[in-house]
Specification:
GO terms for molecular function: manganese ion binding; RNA binding; RNA-DNA hybrid ribonuclease activity. The chain is α/β, with parallel strands linked by helices. It has one domain: Nucleotidyltransferase, domain 5. The chain contains nine helices and five strands, in the order H-H-E-E-H-E-H-H-E-E-H-H-H-H.
């Protein structure tokens, strides 16, 4: 079976098992959510799945419906055999550091938040500066590795729920609908009401408006 065929079948534990055969005991998948939005923190998750653990329907969070993501999130969070760490980098840190460095900070924090220390990580995308353990970066890893897919679900749903909370605080912006991304509804609201303390002032569409905080 070639790589394309494996990807069509969804993520597997192949990378995790390879790392374990090399002597690693705690292999964590790491992913993030929220690099692109104009508002809200960036969130990262780290997940260590037990050997042989294959949650029904687990896949890259972008390939799942919101309902399926929510169901998987709750199942993963309630399962004590799954080790989880979830962490954020704040809007203030994003503006001070830039979004890439803030994302790496959130990932490092998520790994450190695991209840048992990881000795190897599989990271979605490119290498991460500042990670406290050795890691392998895997492009489109959330579609290939089950632990990264699990991390993508945790990070995505956790952040979506944070944005729903912000929506209750600032209902005119529609955060629950667009999750802080630069949709027309969001941009129109910024033009009309200004920006909040939860907007990323270093991002062009926000910085160009130079409007006061709400």
């Amino acid at each position: 079976m070639n790589r394309n065929d494996r990807m069509k079948q969804g993520p597997s534990m192949e990378e995790e098992e390879s790392a374990r055969r090399a002597g690693c005991r705690m292999v964590a998948g790491v992913d993030e959510a929220g690099r692109g939005p104009l508002a809200g923190p960036v969130v990262a998750a780290a997940v260590v799945l037990p050997k042989g653990y294959v949650p029904d329907g687990l896949n890259d969070s972008k390939q799942l419906t919101e309902r399926k993501r929510e169901k998987l999130f709750d199942a993963l969070m309630q399962d004590d055999s799954v080790l989880k760490g979830i962490a954020c980098a704040s809007v203030e840190e994003i503006d001070a550091l830039n979004i890439l460095r803030a994302t790496h900070l959130a990932m490092a924090r998520a790994v450190e938040a695991l209840p048992v220390a990881a000795d190897f990580c599989l990271v979605d995308g490119l290498p991460v500066k500042g990670l406290s353990v050795p890691h392998r970066a895997i492009v489109k890893g959330d579609a290939k590795c089950l632990s990264i897919a699990a991390a993508s679900v945790l990070a995505k749903v956790f952040r979506d729920r944070l944005m729903a909370e912000l929506d209750r605080e600032f209902p005119v912006y529609g955060f629950a609908r667009h999750k802080g991304y630069g949709t027309k509804v969001h941009l129109d609201a910024i033009h009309r009401y200004g920006i909040t303390v939860h907007h990323r002032r270093s991002f062009g569409p926000v910085a160009q408006m130079a409007l006061p905080f709400v």
